[in-house]
Amino acid sequence: MHKFLNISISALLFAAMMLCSCTSRETINPGNTSVPSEQSIAHTHLEAETTPRTTVAEIKTSAPEQTLPTQTIVETQTTAPNSTVIEEIKSLETTAAEEKTSVSEPAEDIEPPAAEPPVVDRFASLGIPEDVGYSYYTEEIREQMLEHGIDYDTVEQLIDVGFIFPEMLEMSHEERCIRSFTHSFRHFDGSIEEMLELLPKTEAYIAENYPDIITKHQYGSSVQGRSLDAYFFSNCEEPKQKIMLTFAMHGYEGDFRNDGAFLTESAYAIMLFYAENPEFLGEAQLIFCPMLNPDGVYAPKNAKYGREQSEGIDMNRDFKKGLFRAAESIALRDFMQEVEPDILIDFHGWLNATYGDSSLAKIFNKHTKLYHWDKQYGSSQGYLIGYAHKQGIRSLLVEHEHFTEINSIGIIYALNEICRKAE
Ligand SMILES: [Zn+2]
Questions:
Q1: Homologous superfamily (CATH) for 192-421
Q2: What are 82-109's pLDDT values in tens digits?
Q3: 182 CA distance to ligand 1 centroid (A)?
């Protein structure tokens, strides 16, 4: 079902986990046609549908390998489309090859020599910012290289060692990191059932791999016994601002059953970005609650609920004095009282709008291109942001345009801006 044109971090992570012991070139299937802009995540997805990208996880699993570049690279390339870039890579390759040959032949029972220093270190020695040293290329450049008689294997090796895409040198650090990250996006093209199976695997990958940045905390349990989890992200000792991000309060957002799972998937995408690029947290702390209503997200087809939690209570009509009927609402309320966030952003679909705090709305609408802003908080209706607002928390409800249009990159830009303001 390729109509699910959403970021599929879950799918890619699952794929990457399957590839962990197998990082051969054949398994890496790069080939985007253009570098996506901040605004074009939907287009990115469309492109990725036909031309899968190298994934973040694949980059991570292939990076430590640091396959020693072979002399063939230097020998086989004659004319390159971008001579400056190729010259730089040639010199890197030559240096690497020289370093390699200077090591005396190891006896069979001696352990293999230590791995090459990361390619990014070698780029750094040339004065190239380290975030340029990712696998960066375009299909166009690949074709040019092939046209210039550079054989396919060599092109792939240049990609492996980190082809320098010249215009990246002109970008800001933020743009480079985000553009690198967009290369990790891949369409989810399976069924919703497969997606629901993949989400826990994605969660496990993120939760287990970034212990320095992420602290996982279970703040409660759903009525059906599923864990209600939060993830604290910080990159400093004493964060100056706490920003809580909540997702999938409605397991069903009005398009098809379980479409709230796309919100959780978006949460994981954003979490993965900050796990990989914690410097953008600045002095802020992000607290992710990626699935407020897991029973609703996992509601079976014949269940009456889905939008609501399993007892039929709509959590976004439950955050009001005298209400708080659902165990999931109570757990979240108590957790909020414990954490005392400064900001709360609650993600939903699919009305293409933001509600609540005007300055937050301005930032989000600018970066995500959401259409409409409404100043209402829904306090009297029992909205989560209404409750937060009454507690003095700056709060915003983000309604994505559609599950095919979730602009996680726009959200990352918006969150970066908010995190910068915390400094
Ligand atoms: Zn909703």
A1: Zn peptidases (3.40.630.10)
A2: 444 445 545 544 444 444 444 444 445 6
A3: 26
